Predict the structure.
Amino acid sequence: MSRRKLLSELKLPRRTMLRGAVGGATVALALPPLEAMLNDQGDALANGDPLPRRFMTWLFGNGCLLEQWEPAATGAGYELSPALAPLASVKDDLTVLTNFRNYVAGRRGHHDGVAGIFSCHPFVQLDPMGAPYASKFGGPSIDQVVADVIGTDTFVKSLQVGVSKRHLQNQGPTLAALSHRGPDQPLYAERDPGRLYDQLFMSFTPPDDPSAARRVKALDAVIQDAQRLKRRISTSDRGRVDAHLESLFQVQKQLLAIPPDCAFPMKPDVEPYMPDGAEPLAEINAAMAQLVVMAFSCDLTRVCSYMFTGASGGAQFYMLPPEAFPEHNTTKDYSHANHHNVSHINQPYEKDFIHRSTIVSMENLAFLLDLMKNTSDGAASLLDNSCVLAASDVAEPWLHSEVSMPLIVAGGAGGRLKRGVGHYRSPDEEPVHNVSLACVKSVLPDVDDITEIGSTSGNYDGFTNTPSTAVFEG
Amino acid sequence: MRSRRYSRFDLRRPAAVAATTFACLAGVACGSTEAPPAPPASAAPATFEPTQSPLRRLRTAQYQNAIATLFSVEVALSADPPADPELNGYTSIASAQLALNDDLVRDYQLSATAVATAAMGDGARIAELLDCNPSGPDDAACMTSFVQRLGRLAFRRPLTTEETDDYLDVGLFAAEEANDFYAGLEYIIVSLLQSPSFLFIVEVGEPMPEDTPARRLTSYETAARMAFFLTDAPPDDALLDAAEAGELDTPEGRQEAALTLLDRPTARRALRNFFTEYLVLDGLELRAKDPNLYPAWDATLARSMREETLRLLDDIIWTRDADVREMFTADYTFVNTPLAEKIYDVPAPQGGDSAASEWGRIDLPADQGRSGILSHPSVLARQANPESTSATHRGLFVLERFLCRTMPPPPEGVVTELPPSSTAPTMRERVAVHLEDPTCAGCHTISDPLGLSLENYDPIGVYRAKENGAVIDASADHIIAGEFVGAKGLGQALAGLEDSTLCLVRNLYRHGTGHVETEGELPLLSMLRDRMAEDGYSLRSFLVNLVSNDAFVTIEANDNIADYEARMAEGETQEEVQP
């Protein structure tokens, strides 16, 4: 059953469809904003406004083998470690951060990390008697904090995308989503490139479509129902209805939105599973990355959370059969195993498997960053004008450790992020939260729009008002 | 195997627990020689504490059934609500806590639009809802009657005047723009189906006649709660009429309505939905098994396993209305060709083929020691690793799902690995460290013995007497379940424990109400469980008793309702009361 049916047939006036395969080697090109919109130098809009900065959070689940992740040398001249080797083409556009620590840790593995880095709030435990454990974020995720500032004028406030569908959904919102507007408002990722395409490029109502006004009017009555309902329900439920209202207003705006003057790509067609049940991670990632880059280029959105694989693992790395490990001479086949299960066997082969899976994850991050680097954005590149925070929910999965978290900050954020740092190792276990704050501030119109992030509750100390100077220029 | 007849179901039998406490509360001197009047069996236990009822979003099954009720099963095929997240084991708990967002609201808009288009294609149903001949695009009177008829079904109560006017405005606007009365109806549908009063089950209640802060569900709210609880579908016109006539305000009235609802196919499907979540039956085909060790494993087999479990439960509870404890002890099951050939090693059902759609009942093979769902591959395969079983996972599953106990996760810094098979041939030896090391034993002695009793079934549920050449020892000595051997022993042990049926009804209550039961609700569930035990452990009888009970229609007041009602009483309009 077709999922995205519109009332009227979509006509695309004045639109040039660019032929471009997604996946594989061919890269679809997005046309940059019209020349007329830029100033003479191409480094700002004609009216003096800066080119919009973009923000992305990127998650690969279940940690890594630290000894293969942490580069030996520090500073700009460092050599990429084996796990980071795939990032060679964008080495100069990123900073590797080591020995940073998650101070919102110690209650529940995986939950600690994802909440600590991506919201800086201690998560809320939902642990009633005799029922399966769940937790939810204790506050908004950092991408939503950013979206509330820079996402208010774009067609889509923020994008939530994912690649692997094998992510944990039965321990509550904390692990099920990377973006949260609040404890009760997880924003689930779209993992189907075709549906993401429809959301981004097929959701505009043509200007001459008469249904738009009627649909807006239909939503007026819905809004009135919500407002009336608020009067007699609990305070806590009022919060939920307020979230509903916020979205209703957003959807009304979208009904009246004019599509950007941008060449839309062809719709991707990627199989979600191979015949044996494996997920073609690289193909799906390529399709997703290209859609996200297109969305950024066409200014359909400026904020994105990207869950490559789910927190706590779950993804299966079919490209790592026993034959890929000749040095271990093993018949144990983890190529269809849950990454999390493998990571709790602290033996050489299994540790190597985790390390090799990290390389796969970094290959996929490299694809995205490379694409952003090769996409022009005014006089610079999309990567130059973005901040990408890539991290995992644990450092080493065997121990659910939260010290020395794997952490990468990529992009230039329009000059706000430091260049040429290379590998920075914190001398004093600086909080990861300072890095999260630094990334948030780097993309705001005015860096002082936000001065603090996160919260502290007892021993769980996520609050910070000091952006990490390791990456943040100011 | 008794068949049940409910027509003279007696609600007047007193519950022993309630009688004693009720007497004291009623002011009769405790210890008086005069026997107090026995309270009706439908009374809540005196120690019962009602809870608040937050807004509950319709789950996808409920949404689709709602569309079917408003229009038709065919129109419901075009409905496409977003997927349900889960919390604490149930999608209904998530639906009672989580809020909507841009993507979900957009999804509901698209679904409403698709449904409206399909509904307008059903001329007969539209005519039914209209019950008037429109004179033109501006026929407000005719359009109003449509709004009221459809609105009542959509919101599960009559619309107020203000509400009717709002949706009428939508319709008149669209009809005028399109110069077509029916375009107006289409947009009324689009609008109603996106409204929170449709998408959420709203329970605000009304003040009780007695002086208590607790509130009683209104008749309409009662109809909705009953219908959704028992059938995952909203009340139809007939049930709403009954509510209007006050018929659901008495236990006897609810009992009769419950019996009618339970006869519907939607009731069977609703319980299937419950068991799918309770036993974690979904998504089994996404689990991987080592293809070298278990080549038989594929998506068809995995889906067959789910269906097998649902069919057995359906047979015990609905077809036979038998003792629900047979879920632990049944000596038969249902198989299709893949299950017969790959798991049970029995002849495939007649007419069976690799397409797996033919099913037949079989007695469990005598030499495999199986028992009810405990040895169903759906349970055994899910609670196992790709290349091995897991005594801990299977044990935890039994502990959590059938005994309602939980365990904390492993402490941080603990490396969790098992010795290789060469030094420890069977799982029992490999988990020995769990049961001997003091840091592990505290928790693992509560889970692992239960799982070890199921070790005769491999990671996909095939019977095996040996592992790595060593005979499997499936004996257990468990702090709650006692001493027993194998799946049959475990089945008997669970059937003999009150905890297991109490855990089942607790889970059913969680799923049906959208929250984990509180301490204050346990007396109710214990009482109803005891009554179910007296009724031959009929789960149907439990459902009828629960719905008939006063507790079912009693809620705690939310923190704004008193103020709202006071201001309405003072003459403020709905619009004037500020949230």
About this structure: Confidence is low (pLDDT under 50) at residues 1-36 of chain A.
